[in-house]
Amino acid sequence: xxxxxxxALGGYIFATLSYLIFFGNGNKKIxxxxxxxxxxxxxxxxxxxxxxxxxxxxTPITNNHEAVSFFALAVTWGxxxxxxxxxxxxxxxFVSPIIxxxxxxxxxxxxxxxxxxxxxxxxxLPVHASIAVMANGFLALAFCGGIMYLLQEREIKKKKFGxxxxxxxxxxxxxDLNRHCLAVGFPLMTLGIISxxxxxxxxxxxxxxxxxxxTWSLITWFIYAAILHQRFTAGWxxxxxxxxxxxxxxxxxxxxxGVNFLIGGVHSYAG
Length: 271
What we know:
Helix content is 77%, strand content 0%. It is mainly alpha-helical. It has two domains: 1-113; 117-271, no CATH class. The longest helix has 35 residues, at 124-158.
C-alpha cells in the first residue's frame, strides 16, 4: 500500500521540477510532461487513499498522516478541476510545491492505521471531514493566487519587468482566480461547519461546545465571510483581497494543525 503513496509523492516531485523548468525556459513539452505527471500522481494518490480506506475500514482522515495526505489530494484535484475550466498561466508552478510540502509532512508522520475512536464511528465522518478538507484545498488555491498577484503587482509598480511579469497572468485575471476559488471554498467551509455541528449533536448531545478547533473554525469562517462581504459591498479587490486570501489561509492552517499541537481539545485526534 505504501508504494502507492511513494509513487504519488515521486510523481508530484517530478511535476514540480518540470513546472519549475518550464517556468524558466518556456518549453511547452516540459509543461505537458508536468501536467501528465501531476495527473498520474493524483490517480496514484486516489488509489492509495482507497487502499488505506479498505485496510482501515473507515475514511482515512483520522490522524495527521491521513489528514495531510487527504489535504494534498484535495489541493491536487481542486487544481486540476479548476484548470480544466480556466487557463491561468503558470498556476501549477505555485500549486505543485504546496502539494509536495504537504506530502512530505504526511510522509514523515506516523502511517500506522489506528483504531477509530467511538466518537468518530459515524457516517458523518466521511461527510464532514471530506467537505472540510476539500474547502481547505480551494482556499489553498486562493492563497497561491494571492501570492502570484502580489509578485506581479510588485514588478508592475516598480516598472521592472523581470522574472514574473511575462510569466504570470494579468492582475485582473489573478483577482478573478482569487474570487473563483473563494466562491467554491467558502460554501464548502460553511457546509463543513454545519455538518460538524450536526455530528456533534449526535455524538455529544450539543451542536457547539466552543472546543478550540470549533472556535478557530468559526474565526476562520468569519475571516473569509468578511473577505467576500467586502468584495461585494466595499469593492475590496486586487491587493487587499490577495493579502486577505493569504491571511485567511494562515488561519485555516492554524485550525488544521496549530490547534492540535498547541491547544488541544476533543478534536485533537489528528495530532
